Amino acid sequence: MRRKDKEITDTNDKIAIIAKCKVCRLGLSENNYPYIIPLNYGYSFENGKLTLFFHGAKEGKKIGIIQNNNNACFEIDCDTKLIEGERSCDYGYEFRSIIGIGKIFFLETNEEKTYGLNYLMKHQTGKDMQYSFTEDELNNVCVYKMAVEEFTGKQKILMKK
What we know:
Blueprint: E1 7-8, H1 11-20, E2 23-30, E3 33-40, E4 42-46, E5 49-56, H2 61-68, E6 71-83, E7 92-107, H3 110-125, H4 135-139, E8 142-156
Antiparallel strand pairs: 1-8, 2-3, 2-6, 4-5, 5-8, 6-7, 7-8
């Protein structure tokens, strides 16, 4: 990271950002062109490993790209706010963000899908409970996870006066 003064090095601080934000931009690659999709997500952080969970239609462009190339990157940000200045070059933006890389894997069994969907629902709703899904619901959805290989955090936050 070029701007070490903005780097977030504490893992707990990075996970707190992931916990606070609600939308993840997933970056994929098809024929040497990037393809970026904003998605709601869930996550787990266990034994030092971050996993992101997503869901959607069982077919479409995104699914086809992942089937051909499961390498992916992601970006999550929140706490954004315009910083105003006297001159145009004095303007900026406050933010907290996480970026990372990893591999996407489809969850195949109903048990795996339920596991992933529970993380997604818990994160999006803020309710720590077990969610249940019918067999039809599970059969009609694609659930996939990103096994994150590395991730970094960055922030620009002005001190309050």
